[in-house]
Amino acid sequence: MEPAMIELDQVVKKFGDLTAVNHLTLKIGRGEFFAMLGPNAAGKTTTIKLLAGLIKPTSGSARICGFDIQTQPLEARRRLAYVPDFPFLYDKLTAWEFFRFTGQLFRLDARRINQNAEELIARFHLSEYADRPLEGLSHGTRQRIAIVSALLHDPEVFVIDEPMVGLDPQHARVVKDVLKERSLAGMTVLVSTHQLSIAEEMADRIGIIHGGKMIAVGTRDELRRQSGSAGALEEIFLSLTASS
User: Fold this and answer.
1) Phi-psi region of 215 (alpha: psi -120 to 50; beta: other; left: phi over 0)
2) What is the CATH number of the domain that holds 52?
3) For position 168, what pLDDT does the model report?
4) Which pLDDT value is given to residue 30?
């Protein structure tokens, strides 16, 4: 049986007396579009950072494509793309320079970098910004550049925290379309968000995290049954987070 593409096994993360993630277990399969929802301080971003290898779990393990992010970090990261809610970009570079730099980190040859970047630049409406220094660009444009750089190496797993921050409706639509297309083609997508509409519209399964615990996981219909609410996702979310 093929291993899960994203796997968290009894992950705990403590910051002093605060338990930010509390024995969280989750498996996400190939090509699945998974949305992780939760109120502020629920543990979403901490979970994402654990998966990306940016912080170490207090206990438990996190694996990407079967590779432990702590003990096999290069193998895991080679298959992973991660876009934080406020991406770090090298401000003095142009977008093209940043794409070449990112591609070289993943050991892509120049032809593949150029081909992939040209396709993504066109798709994300970035042509007019490609030769401008990043420091002068708006937050929404920088967000699109971060997403393009993350997709350059055709990752098997794509993890993104609050993907629509700063994006206008037109560009939010492009991001949604590209991520869904890639998911249908086999890329595993994990989106962490406050925005219920993204989960409602895009996700194959939804996980609701609250107080560092995954209190519910399932399709919208499965969550409806669990919450006892026949209404919209907002009612289900409020019912589950209020009762836990």
Assistant:
1) alpha
2) 3.40.50.300
3) 86
4) 95
